[in-house]
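Lab channel / #folding
Pinned by the channel admin:
"Please post every new chain as: sequence first, then the structure tokens as a reply. Keep commentary short and put observations after the output so the thread stays searchable."

First post following the new format, from NK:
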Amino acid sequence: MGDNFAFVDELGPLKIIHVHEPSIGLKAVLVVDNVAKGPSIGGVRMAADVTIEECARLARAMTFKNAAAGLPHGGGKAILVGDPKMPLTKKETLIRGMACALQEVEQYIFAPDMGTDETCMAWVKDEIGRVVGLPREVGGIPLDEIGATGWGLSHVVDVALKFCDFEIQGARFVVQGFGAVGKHVTNFLSQNGAVPVAVSDTQGTIYNPDGLDVTKLLVLKNAGKSVIDYPDGKKLAGDAIIDIECDIWIPAARPDVIHEDNVHRLNTKMVIEAANIPVTHEAEKILHGKGILYVPDFIANAGGVICAAMEYQGASQSAAFATIEEKLRRNTQEVLQTAKSEQILPREASMRMARKRIDRAMSFRRWNLF
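Reply from TO:
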């Protein structure tokens, strides 16, 4: 995972905890970044190549995301090293072991993320109880099943269109990462009249300039197949999705997929950051300089954590969806209007808004702890 770590400032991190249990092959890290607003919520990300640096950056993104969303929670993130497609019995052992190892860290609330799902969270609940993103059967609001993040993203797009020169009807869009988030945002935008022309997953990209049938794509993915098995489209390499002309480009996979070396390949009018930290800061500057509107990750993709926080408080699914719509529309409008009127980057406007709320919460603490 790498042990070099120099990401420390006045906001955090409060704690970095390594978990290692060789007898079951458990290797994990928890970063609790900042808890001034309350106990941290952040997903458990499982991947073979996940690093502590990635975990720390994601934990900080959660601090800003939760603050921007006005939630009584700080930011944290956990990573679990391993192949998320490993046998279910082995995965269950690792998840349960990780939960038990972190059971006394009450400043962190488990949640699903890339490589983990509602079933994984049910195992956590069984062990320690401090978790969100649960299956319905145990009192949860299943984030991935209902598409909470995708629902929020569809409203972010709707507000962002007010700052562009095209309408949602007939708008061509591309989704890089047709997974839990990517599937739902594709479905919601299609229902609103937009046309998906390309989607990708770990196996490659499928492209059809006349549009893709979302129902057929969902059937394929739900059957465990790849988007490249879609019959009516051109099969391309995964990286080729960056070059496809569109109106809206949506990264919904891993961090840093757009950076200084490839950002110039984008041929779009708008970038909506559905994944966490999918575009580097330098690449965002280039997008802004080229007149391409973008909405930063912790503003755009907050639907999932808003839903999770409301589940933790016992709210219903309908109440969660209404709150996601209200908060994301308001925040997107405020951020893009500030960026436009003050001629600053959308990320700068976003961080200013979130940081103001974090600093206010920190001012109430007896000690200047994170």
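NK: Residues 141 and 311 are 6 Å apart (CA to CA).
TO: also worth noting, The first helix runs from residue 52 to 68.
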